[in-house]
Amino acid sequence: MARSHEPTLADVAERAGVSVTTVSRVLNARGYLSQDAKDRVARAIEDLGYRPNQVARALHGKKTNTIGLIIPTVALPFFGELAVEVENALADGGYRILICNSLGRADREREYLNLLIGNRVDGIISGAHNEGLCEYESIRMPLVTIDRDLSPTIPNVRCDNRGAGRMATEKLLEAGARRPALLTSRSGAHNLREQGYRDALAGTGAEPLVLAVPFDTPSPLRQRRVEEALDSIAGRFDAVFATDDLAAAEVLEWARGRGVDVPSRLKVVGFDGTTAIRRALPALATIRQPLDLIARKAVELLVAQIDGSGPSPGDAGGVPSAVEFPVAFLPGRTL
Amino acid sequence: MARSHEPTLADVAERAGVSVTTVSRVLNARGYLSQDAKDRVARAIEDLGYRPNQVARALHGKKTNTIGLIIPTVALPFFGELAVEVENALADGGYRILICNSLGRADREREYLNLLIGNRVDGIISGAHNEGLCEYESIRMPLVTIDRDLSPTIPNVRCDNRGAGRMATEKLLEAGARRPALLTSRSGAHNLREQGYRDALAGTGAEPLVLAVPFDTPSPLRQRRVEEALDSIAGRFDAVFATDDLAAAEVLEWARGRGVDVPSRLKVVGFDGTTAIRRALPALATIRQPLDLIARKAVELLVAQIDGSGPSPGDAGGVPSAVEFPVAFLPGRTL
DNA sequence: CTGAAAGCGCTAACAG
DNA sequence: CTGTTAGCGCTTTCAG
């Protein structure tokens, strides 16, 4: 392939007739330099089209200016938009991002964790969903999670899931629904949106109807699963709060297939409110997560850890373990 | 932060009572090792929780096993899914991916290009859309583009855009449309989907109606632009071929607002057929790009360049400069 | 103001 | 079979 080497510091030094030290100095604007030296080095860099080797720089400096982001998959608009927001927030601090799609598989997440550590990233933001990855316990590295409780000592940033679940359910009730069902990914005590749904139902006399279809069910299967779930409670609900917008879309498709009119006979509210799904389905009423704020805060907490100006994981005290942001209701024609 | 260093090769060597060479050897399974040595090293690695420093490894080996992917933004499902497909294809070869969102801005793309080169990635796959970035000319590095003609010497992988444009338009005609309009991002000779549209119209007596709204128009504005465009040709069209699904969704929203029934009075066909949008809008008829094949082929061509078993950019001959894959029509209720 | 030299952690000759 | 010894490209004392 006869590719000539990229030029190195030494090449620049030689061409400029100075030492590598001097070149390094002008590159990093450190110490006093004669104008003459600066000029000659600048010219040599220009002539050679020199670009510092960040790999070498990182090896020495013990800082890669890279952080890892672990999420299920950027193929889902929610995580795609989250990734872009994180990237933007990071850019201000001079960091870049290594995006890792765990695809909801624990082995893949573990693999990526090792990759990130091996590559000596300066910190990790984890928004993946695999339970019980003990690896995180032993990670001695700046770490922040998004919408995921790993451990009380690891800062977590998220929207006010419980309040949001309550809000979504209340919107359905206000619109006239009497028996709203919940369609979520996994039911349980850890599911705060479900808690909010139950909160809102308490005192209305309505019985909670919780349907669970894993969010990473392969696509052709998912629609069927959702339809089975809805059919199984047929006649016992007149509204659905789906904990993500794509699931809400599946509910709409079910209704169309069954000839159930929305919103007169069925009201639907989704969750996330991503720009992409909003464009695809502007009719869908939903709860919007403030992704920009969440990303910005997660980055802020992470950078504080990296700079040592914030608590590291394992540290008690200091930053509260969870930061929550309020959500916004986006009206639509589905309720 | 009082974090003691991550353990190094030397630490492992000391603990195992062997030399660093030996440790390096067992790590890379190179040369002959006594079983005893292997065992002791393995134990030491285990005890210390040692993870090889990939940065150092890359510095020496002149290979980072990382490739850069430049795209507009993973916030759009099409590029999000493309990124995941590329990542999967790459994983088989032991490569990882650095995803760069250019956000459609030339400055950002240039910046990322420098970043990738500075980080000494082994190659670049570019699927961004900025015109006239002269930087690419001077890049002496394995490079493949996706759906983008940079130069005849740089391999390009894409779907059969022209055939696909023709197919989409023909589907509209077959469904009974007489005057299909085209809604695209940028009109011009380079727009092969537009060519296909014109091909299909030739001989039908229908006059081409081409509407252009840039795909990266900020979201709230876009819907308005699309509506203005459609209003401007009101009464002169009875179908729309939109060159991406999100644009098609905007057409549907326009129709709903104007009280135009789909598909009886207006037929619509989109483009891309991503899983996410398919889930959100299963009713939309569209043309599906074989993202998996495209990604796999792009990676194959890139890896061939990296391994030196394929032509480098600038090389004439060898691999044809463009590889095209056929698309598939996905039926829906919008036509 | 500038340069020589010692590493950062790892790999690869080149001897034993 | 194993250890010694150079570097990879860059930053950073420490002396001029």
Automatic annotation (TrEMBL), chains A, B:
Keywords from the named record: DNA-binding, Repressor, Transcription, Transcription regulation
**Gene3D superfamilies for this protein:** 3.40.50.2300, lambda repressor-like DNA-binding domains
Alphabetized GO MF terms: DNA-binding transcription factor activity; transcription cis-regulatory region binding
InterPro entries per UniProt: Cro/C1-type_HTH, HTH_LacI, LacI/GalR-like_sensor, Lambda_DNA-bd_dom_sf, Peripla_BP_I
HTH lacI-type domain: residues covered: 7-61
What PANTHER family is this protein classified in? LACI-RELATED TRANSCRIPTIONAL REPRESSOR, RIBOSE OPERON REPRESSOR
Q: Please give the name of this protein.
A: Transcriptional regulator, LacI family
What organism does the UniProt record list as the source? Answer: Schaalia georgiae F0490
Q: What is the lineage of its organism?
A: Bacteria, Bacillati, Actinomycetota, Actinomycetes, Actinomycetales
